[in-house]
Please model this.
Amino acid sequence: MTHPTGIPVFERFFRSVAGLKIDRNDVRRFRDFVDQMVDDLAIAGRNSARWNDRDVIAPQDLPITAGLQERMREFDKLDDAGDVRRLLREVVRRPPADVTFSEETEGMLVEVFGGLGVAMARSMKLIDPDVTNPATEHWDRAFGLFRLVF
Model:
């Protein structure tokens, strides 16, 4: 049985990906990050779809880099990927009202956020190779890195 907040699932996920011990506040930070990324991906996808005279966002409209594709493949191979997928399907909020994802794109979002989770956890180790329990400053730096590229 999964805890309603998903804390045990995300704790195992971050521990298996980067050896990080996260707590309830870290889970909240990660979920806030995922919410922000939903908006960012939705807006970028909407703009790309409109550029191609479409109203519905197709998978190719999402700004998915080669690095993110690789992290998505790594996510898929994790033992905890199934639990994380189930939880992300429950907690990922809907995109802004003026954005419509195709069914295929909708199905792909959980994989995108799994890949982003892998990238987020690993970025903590790049920021501070010795970190075990990420502090607010680690999260802020990692979020800053992601904002630079997305």
